[in-house]
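ingest -> validate -> predict -> emit
validate: passed (alphabet ok, no gaps, 270 aa)
predict: started
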Amino acid sequence: MTPTPLPTYFISHGGGPWPWMQEEMQGRYDCLKASLQALPRELALRPKAVLMISAHWEEAEFTVMSGAQPPMLYDYHGFPEHTYRVVYPAPGAPALAQQVHGLIEQAGMAAASDGRRGFDHGMFSPMVVLWPGADMPVVQLSLRRGLDPRQHLALGRALAPLRHEGVLIIGSGLSYHNLRAFGPAARPASAAFDAWLQQTLVDSAPEPRSAGLIRWEDAPAARAAHPREEHLLPLMVALGAAEQEPAACIYHEDDFLGGVVVSSFRFGAV
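emit:
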């Protein structure tokens, strides 16, 4: 066991297969890319594996990807043809998947395994920037349908022991996700909601922080920022796994894609 637990992260993962579209993006992802490249350098030790909770996978019960070499899942539409042939061949980690399954059940929650599902872009788009060599074992874990914040905080608490074993827990979503209001139209709602996130996550004590996230719908512009909350729920898991530890904003941009205010956060010390 590692003497100091790894921190956990909630990252804003951007849109679709953006790392494979550098020419098309014309620098619009440079800030996010730099923040992801900096993340591994924060860690004192290289993780043994990554446990990724992606906004792009929901199941009736928390479900663990258990394949040894998961395929690609091109879960996006309307992107250039070449982005449906990209490959990020990271290995799975069946033993870790089994351990995750057991921790969830030990916490009194139902769990399932899926040995056939592929990596979705909530995983491979940030991971190709984090570990471009695709040499970091990755296990994906689904959200639970219903998107109950309490259940996802509880999931994070159940997974906390993994931090002492060299497993890096990453929640992959977006701090603002309203596809009908991007660009300049997104600025008021994304700024209001981001300010609430900063105050709640970074400036609050652990108990009111968790309570605030459970009542996230009461936040300013909450439903304008997240008409559906699947891109916010990975944050609950990352926080739950480091619930008593301080938070820091590791990425903040107030003009993402022409007007969106977005952030990423770390929980725990580095």
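The mean pLDDT is 96.
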